[in-house]
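pasting for the record
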Amino acid sequence: MEEPQIHESAQGPRVTPAASRTAQTPRPVPGPRPVAVPRPGRPGPSPAAGRAGGAPRPAPPAQRAPQAAPGPVPAAPAAPAAPSVSAAVPQIQLIPASLEGALDAAEEAVDLLLDTGRAPGDILVLTTGDPHPWAAHELSFGEAAYWALHDAGDDVFYADAAQVQRAAGRPVVVFAVNGGGVDTVAGSLPVALTRAGALLIVCGDPQQINSVLGAGV
């Protein structure tokens, strides 16, 4: 009697050995995130922020302000007042000249002032006798137009010394004694001194001028 044969189709499912299975890689456990790199122009995180539960460091001794006992605050010293231009005493320069040559001496003084850097609007010329040709020409257009040039203050201005009260002060005043008498000089020269901010130039007889302003001129 023949033994029954076992076909492959009748065999049960094959079992893969356990040793041939691939073990799964375990997932990483979440941990602390790295400190972010600060962006340009923005401050980075504080070093204490990366320490979990870390106590803040005390401030350096230099940063601790000492506690002063309360007391009265001393008053600040008052600043000294700046001297005004009118209060300053101008320098006086005397140019000896006769009545006939005083106007020419004044013209030379103006030219020298301009050559040394003075602005034309810094100069006022006063005459005690005949008016300067420029003043006579401008006055032919009327008083209003003439004094408008004075108020503009952008050029040398020539005026009669008798009208010195109307003229505004300028850094330099040139006073030409070309006539007018002693009373005219005595009445207008002290006023011309008050109109000069830095320099008064007097062209005339030294003896007459010293008698008005004093021997120290």
